[in-house]
Design a protein that fits this description.
Layout: H1 7-33, E1 40-49, E2 54-66, E3 70-72, H2 74-84, H3 87-107, E4 114-118, H4 121-125, H5 129-140, E5 147-152, H6 160-172, E6 176-182, H7 189-192, E7 199-202, H8 204-207, H9 214-229, E8 233-236, H10 242-250, E9 255-256, E10 265-266, H11 267-276
Parallel strand pairs: 2-4, 4-5, 5-6, 6-7, 7-8, 8-9
Antiparallel strand pairs: 1-2, 1-9, 1-10, 2-3
The structure holds ligand C2E and magnesium ion (3 copies).
Ligand C2E binds near residues 61 and 94.
Protein backbone atom coordinates (compact mmCIF):
# COMPACT_ATOMS: atom_id res chain seq x y z
CA UNK A 1 0.00 0.00 0.00
CA UNK A 2 2.89 2.38 0.66
CA UNK A 3 4.06 4.53 -2.24
CA UNK A 4 7.61 4.35 -3.45
CA UNK A 5 9.81 6.16 -0.92
CA UNK A 6 6.95 6.33 1.54
CA UNK A 7 7.40 2.76 2.70
CA UNK A 8 10.12 3.56 5.17
CA UNK A 9 8.21 6.46 6.53
CA UNK A 10 5.16 4.32 7.16
CA UNK A 11 7.30 1.70 8.85
CA UNK A 12 9.01 4.33 11.01
CA UNK A 13 5.67 5.79 12.04
CA UNK A 14 4.28 2.37 12.82
CA UNK A 15 7.29 1.34 14.96
CA UNK A 16 7.00 4.59 16.84
CA UNK A 17 3.32 4.00 17.52
CA UNK A 18 4.03 0.48 18.70
CA UNK A 19 6.66 1.79 21.09
CA UNK A 20 4.25 4.36 22.45
CA UNK A 21 1.54 1.75 22.90
CA UNK A 22 3.96 -0.59 24.66
CA UNK A 23 5.19 2.17 26.95
CA UNK A 24 1.63 3.02 27.83
CA UNK A 25 0.74 -0.59 28.50
CA UNK A 26 3.77 -1.07 30.69
CA UNK A 27 3.07 2.18 32.60
CA UNK A 28 -0.52 1.09 33.11
CA UNK A 29 0.40 -2.38 34.37
CA UNK A 30 2.92 -0.98 36.79
CA UNK A 31 0.67 1.85 37.93
CA UNK A 32 -1.99 -0.71 38.92
CA UNK A 33 0.47 -2.22 41.38
CA UNK A 34 2.21 0.97 42.52
CA UNK A 35 0.29 1.30 45.79
CA UNK A 36 0.69 -2.30 46.95
CA UNK A 37 4.36 -2.25 45.95
CA UNK A 38 4.91 0.87 48.03
CA UNK A 39 6.24 2.81 45.05
CA UNK A 40 4.28 6.01 45.68
CA UNK A 41 5.46 8.83 47.93
CA UNK A 42 4.40 12.36 48.65
CA UNK A 43 6.82 15.25 48.48
CA UNK A 44 5.91 18.52 50.15
CA UNK A 45 6.63 22.00 48.84
CA UNK A 46 6.71 24.66 51.60
CA UNK A 47 4.60 27.76 50.92
CA UNK A 48 5.60 31.17 52.31
CA UNK A 49 3.01 33.44 53.90
CA UNK A 50 4.16 36.98 53.11
CA UNK A 51 2.36 38.58 56.08
CA UNK A 52 3.75 36.31 58.77
CA UNK A 53 7.03 35.66 56.98
CA UNK A 54 6.60 31.99 57.78
CA UNK A 55 6.34 28.80 55.78
CA UNK A 56 3.10 27.57 57.24
CA UNK A 57 1.52 25.81 54.29
CA UNK A 58 2.69 22.92 52.15
CA UNK A 59 1.49 21.34 48.93
CA UNK A 60 1.60 17.56 48.68
CA UNK A 61 2.96 16.43 45.31
CA UNK A 62 2.87 12.82 44.24
CA UNK A 63 6.02 10.95 43.23
CA UNK A 64 6.18 7.52 41.61
CA UNK A 65 9.41 5.56 41.76
CA UNK A 66 8.62 2.40 39.81
CA UNK A 67 10.86 -0.57 40.48
CA UNK A 68 10.57 -1.54 36.84
CA UNK A 69 10.48 1.85 35.09
CA UNK A 70 12.28 4.25 37.43
CA UNK A 71 11.00 7.69 38.40
CA UNK A 72 8.00 8.76 36.34
CA UNK A 73 6.82 12.37 36.30
CA UNK A 74 3.26 13.18 37.42
CA UNK A 75 2.80 14.92 34.06
CA UNK A 76 3.10 11.47 32.47
CA UNK A 77 1.34 9.19 34.96
CA UNK A 78 -1.49 11.39 36.30
CA UNK A 79 -3.25 11.65 32.88
CA UNK A 80 -2.89 7.88 32.47
CA UNK A 81 -4.22 7.28 35.98
CA UNK A 82 -7.19 9.48 35.05
CA UNK A 83 -7.90 7.70 31.76
CA UNK A 84 -7.77 4.28 33.38
CA UNK A 85 -9.64 5.21 36.56
CA UNK A 86 -6.65 4.23 38.73
CA UNK A 87 -6.71 7.85 39.94
CA UNK A 88 -9.61 6.93 42.25
CA UNK A 89 -7.53 4.61 44.41
CA UNK A 90 -4.33 6.66 44.03
CA UNK A 91 -6.20 9.84 44.95
CA UNK A 92 -7.56 8.19 48.07
CA UNK A 93 -4.07 7.06 49.04
CA UNK A 94 -2.74 10.62 48.50
CA UNK A 95 -5.47 12.20 50.61
CA UNK A 96 -5.03 9.76 53.50
CA UNK A 97 -1.22 10.02 53.42
CA UNK A 98 -1.30 13.84 53.37
CA UNK A 99 -3.70 13.95 56.34
CA UNK A 100 -1.59 11.46 58.33
CA UNK A 101 1.52 13.57 57.64
CA UNK A 102 -0.20 16.82 58.64
CA UNK A 103 -1.34 15.30 61.96
CA UNK A 104 2.15 13.99 62.64
CA UNK A 105 3.71 17.44 62.01
CA UNK A 106 1.11 19.19 64.17
CA UNK A 107 1.86 16.76 67.00
CA UNK A 108 5.52 17.72 66.70
CA UNK A 109 4.63 21.38 67.20
CA UNK A 110 4.97 22.51 63.59
CA UNK A 111 2.40 25.28 63.07
CA UNK A 112 0.87 24.16 59.82
CA UNK A 113 -1.92 26.38 58.46
CA UNK A 114 -2.73 24.28 55.41
CA UNK A 115 -1.94 20.98 53.81
CA UNK A 116 -2.84 21.37 50.14
CA UNK A 117 -3.78 18.25 48.17
CA UNK A 118 -4.37 18.09 44.41
CA UNK A 119 -7.64 16.51 43.36
CA UNK A 120 -8.32 15.28 39.84
CA UNK A 121 -11.69 16.04 38.25
CA UNK A 122 -12.35 12.30 37.89
CA UNK A 123 -11.89 11.91 41.63
CA UNK A 124 -13.90 15.04 42.46
CA UNK A 125 -16.84 13.94 40.29
CA UNK A 126 -16.73 10.35 41.52
CA UNK A 127 -19.82 9.51 43.56
CA UNK A 128 -19.26 9.80 47.29
CA UNK A 129 -16.15 11.97 47.11
CA UNK A 130 -17.17 14.26 49.97
CA UNK A 131 -18.11 11.22 52.09
CA UNK A 132 -14.63 9.83 51.46
CA UNK A 133 -13.04 13.12 52.54
CA UNK A 134 -15.21 13.13 55.68
CA UNK A 135 -14.21 9.59 56.59
CA UNK A 136 -10.48 10.24 56.04
CA UNK A 137 -10.74 13.32 58.28
CA UNK A 138 -12.49 11.26 60.96
CA UNK A 139 -10.00 8.43 60.65
CA UNK A 140 -6.89 10.63 60.80
CA UNK A 141 -8.35 13.19 63.23
CA UNK A 142 -7.03 16.09 61.14
CA UNK A 143 -8.68 19.45 61.87
CA UNK A 144 -10.70 19.98 58.64
CA UNK A 145 -9.71 23.68 58.56
CA UNK A 146 -6.14 22.61 57.74
CA UNK A 147 -7.00 20.58 54.67
CA UNK A 148 -7.12 22.45 51.37
CA UNK A 149 -8.17 20.69 48.18
CA UNK A 150 -6.78 22.06 44.91
CA UNK A 151 -9.15 21.80 41.98
CA UNK A 152 -8.49 22.91 38.43
CA UNK A 153 -10.72 25.20 36.43
CA UNK A 154 -11.48 22.29 34.09
CA UNK A 155 -13.17 20.52 37.01
CA UNK A 156 -15.51 23.46 37.49
CA UNK A 157 -16.80 23.73 33.92
CA UNK A 158 -19.16 20.76 34.21
CA UNK A 159 -22.85 21.13 35.13
CA UNK A 160 -22.97 24.10 37.47
CA UNK A 161 -25.69 22.75 39.76
CA UNK A 162 -23.95 19.40 40.25
CA UNK A 163 -20.58 21.05 40.91
CA UNK A 164 -22.10 23.44 43.41
CA UNK A 165 -23.63 20.57 45.40
CA UNK A 166 -20.25 18.80 45.68
CA UNK A 167 -18.46 22.05 46.58
CA UNK A 168 -21.05 22.86 49.24
CA UNK A 169 -20.82 19.43 50.81
CA UNK A 170 -17.01 19.75 50.95
CA UNK A 171 -17.32 23.28 52.32
CA UNK A 172 -19.71 22.00 55.00
CA UNK A 173 -16.95 19.68 56.25
CA UNK A 174 -14.98 22.79 57.15
CA UNK A 175 -12.19 22.16 54.66
CA UNK A 176 -10.77 24.78 52.27
CA UNK A 177 -11.01 24.82 48.48
CA UNK A 178 -8.51 26.32 46.05
CA UNK A 179 -8.41 26.76 42.29
CA UNK A 180 -5.08 25.58 40.92
CA UNK A 181 -3.36 26.95 37.79
CA UNK A 182 -5.81 29.84 37.82
CA UNK A 183 -6.00 31.80 34.59
CA UNK A 184 -5.22 28.92 32.25
CA UNK A 185 -8.72 27.46 32.10
CA UNK A 186 -12.12 28.63 31.10
CA UNK A 187 -14.00 29.07 34.35
CA UNK A 188 -16.39 31.97 34.20
CA UNK A 189 -16.22 34.68 36.81
CA UNK A 190 -19.99 34.68 37.29
CA UNK A 191 -19.74 31.04 38.32
CA UNK A 192 -16.74 31.56 40.54
CA UNK A 193 -18.49 34.09 42.71
CA UNK A 194 -21.21 31.51 43.49
CA UNK A 195 -18.71 28.83 44.49
CA UNK A 196 -17.32 28.51 48.04
CA UNK A 197 -13.68 28.92 46.94
CA UNK A 198 -11.07 30.10 49.46
CA UNK A 199 -8.01 30.55 47.30
CA UNK A 200 -6.77 31.23 43.79
CA UNK A 201 -3.38 29.89 42.80
CA UNK A 202 -1.92 31.98 40.00
CA UNK A 203 -0.48 29.69 37.34
CA UNK A 204 3.28 29.69 36.98
CA UNK A 205 3.07 30.67 33.31
CA UNK A 206 1.93 34.16 34.41
CA UNK A 207 4.62 34.40 37.08
CA UNK A 208 7.46 33.33 34.81
CA UNK A 209 8.14 36.69 33.18
CA UNK A 210 6.38 39.24 35.34
CA UNK A 211 9.54 41.32 35.77
CA UNK A 212 9.90 42.00 32.05
CA UNK A 213 6.52 41.27 30.49
CA UNK A 214 4.01 44.05 31.00
CA UNK A 215 1.21 41.76 29.88
CA UNK A 216 1.74 39.02 32.45
CA UNK A 217 2.38 41.60 35.16
CA UNK A 218 -1.02 43.13 34.43
CA UNK A 219 -2.70 39.70 34.57
CA UNK A 220 -1.09 38.88 37.92
CA UNK A 221 -2.13 42.24 39.37
CA UNK A 222 -5.68 41.70 38.09
CA UNK A 223 -5.91 38.21 39.65
CA UNK A 224 -4.66 39.53 43.01
CA UNK A 225 -7.24 42.34 42.92
CA UNK A 226 -9.97 39.92 41.96
CA UNK A 227 -9.09 37.57 44.82
CA UNK A 228 -9.14 40.52 47.22
CA UNK A 229 -12.56 41.66 46.06
CA UNK A 230 -13.98 38.13 46.36
CA UNK A 231 -12.35 37.77 49.80
CA UNK A 232 -10.17 34.90 48.66
CA UNK A 233 -6.56 34.15 49.44
CA UNK A 234 -4.11 34.26 46.57
CA UNK A 235 -0.92 32.26 46.04
CA UNK A 236 1.63 32.65 43.27
CA UNK A 237 3.18 29.43 41.97
CA UNK A 238 6.49 28.85 40.23
CA UNK A 239 8.43 31.74 41.78
CA UNK A 240 12.05 31.26 40.74
CA UNK A 241 13.71 34.68 41.04
CA UNK A 242 14.08 37.40 43.68
CA UNK A 243 12.66 39.91 41.18
CA UNK A 244 9.45 37.86 40.90
CA UNK A 245 9.26 37.58 44.68
CA UNK A 246 9.69 41.33 45.13
CA UNK A 247 7.11 42.12 42.49
CA UNK A 248 4.56 39.80 44.17
CA UNK A 249 5.31 41.19 47.64
CA UNK A 250 4.88 44.69 46.30
CA UNK A 251 1.51 43.75 44.79
CA UNK A 252 0.41 42.22 48.11
CA UNK A 253 0.16 38.63 46.94
CA UNK A 254 -0.57 36.59 50.10
CA UNK A 255 1.50 33.48 49.59
CA UNK A 256 4.45 32.42 47.49
CA UNK A 257 5.52 29.01 46.30
CA UNK A 258 8.44 28.16 44.05
CA UNK A 259 11.94 26.82 43.58
CA UNK A 260 13.40 30.13 44.84
CA UNK A 261 12.12 29.30 48.33
CA UNK A 262 12.12 25.51 48.22
CA UNK A 263 11.65 22.62 45.87
CA UNK A 264 9.14 19.94 46.83
CA UNK A 265 10.92 17.88 49.52
CA UNK A 266 10.58 14.31 50.75
CA UNK A 267 8.71 14.18 54.09
CA UNK A 268 11.82 13.90 56.29
CA UNK A 269 13.46 16.91 54.61
CA UNK A 270 10.26 18.97 54.61
CA UNK A 271 9.97 18.30 58.33
CA UNK A 272 13.49 19.62 58.97
CA UNK A 273 12.79 22.63 56.74
CA UNK A 274 9.60 23.52 58.63
CA UNK A 275 11.19 22.98 62.06
CA UNK A 276 14.35 24.96 61.33
CA UNK A 277 12.74 28.17 60.08
CA UNK A 278 12.62 31.08 62.45
P1 LIG B 1 0.49 21.67 40.32
O1 LIG B 1 -0.50 21.18 41.32
O2 LIG B 1 0.22 22.97 39.67
O3 LIG B 1 1.87 21.66 41.10
C1 LIG B 1 2.91 22.58 40.87
C2 LIG B 1 3.98 21.96 40.01
O4 LIG B 1 4.98 22.94 39.77
C3 LIG B 1 4.72 20.79 40.68
O5 LIG B 1 5.14 19.91 39.65
C4 LIG B 1 5.92 21.49 41.30
O6 LIG B 1 7.01 20.63 41.54
C5 LIG B 1 6.24 22.50 40.24
N1 LIG B 1 6.94 23.68 40.74
C6 LIG B 1 6.93 24.21 41.99
N2 LIG B 1 7.69 25.32 42.05
C7 LIG B 1 8.20 25.51 40.81
C8 LIG B 1 9.07 26.51 40.22
O7 LIG B 1 9.53 27.44 40.87
N3 LIG B 1 9.34 26.37 38.90
C9 LIG B 1 8.85 25.34 38.15
N4 LIG B 1 9.20 25.28 36.86
N5 LIG B 1 8.03 24.39 38.67
C10 LIG B 1 7.71 24.47 39.97
P2 LIG B 1 4.97 18.34 39.76
O8 LIG B 1 5.24 17.89 41.16
O9 LIG B 1 5.75 17.73 38.66
O10 LIG B 1 3.43 18.12 39.50
C11 LIG B 1 2.86 18.46 38.26
C12 LIG B 1 1.36 18.40 38.33
O11 LIG B 1 0.91 17.06 38.54
C13 LIG B 1 0.75 19.20 39.47
O12 LIG B 1 0.69 20.58 39.15
C14 LIG B 1 -0.61 18.56 39.57
O13 LIG B 1 -1.47 19.06 38.60
C15 LIG B 1 -0.29 17.11 39.25
N6 LIG B 1 -0.18 16.35 40.51
C16 LIG B 1 0.88 16.21 41.34
N7 LIG B 1 0.57 15.46 42.43
C17 LIG B 1 -0.76 15.14 42.28
C18 LIG B 1 -1.69 14.37 43.05
O14 LIG B 1 -1.40 13.88 44.15
N8 LIG B 1 -2.95 14.24 42.54
C19 LIG B 1 -3.33 14.81 41.35
N9 LIG B 1 -4.59 14.62 40.93
N10 LIG B 1 -2.49 15.53 40.61
C20 LIG B 1 -1.22 15.71 41.07
MG1 LIG C 1 -1.47 22.06 42.83
MG1 LIG D 1 -0.52 24.68 39.83
MG1 LIG E 1 -0.39 22.22 37.20
Amino acid sequence: HAKRGGGNRYQYFSTNMTELALRRLSLENNLHRAIERNELALHYQPILNIKTGKFSGVEALLRWNSEELGCISPAEFIPLAEETGIIISIGEWVLRQACIQAVSWLKQGISLTHMAVNVSSIQFLNKGFSTLVASILAETQLNPQLLELELTESTLIFDEGAILIILQSLNALGIKLAIDDFGTGYSSLSRLKNFPINRLKIDQSFVRDIEEGAENAAIVVAIIAMAESMKMNVTAEGVETAAQLNFLKDKRCHEIQGYLLSRPLPATKAEIFLKNQS
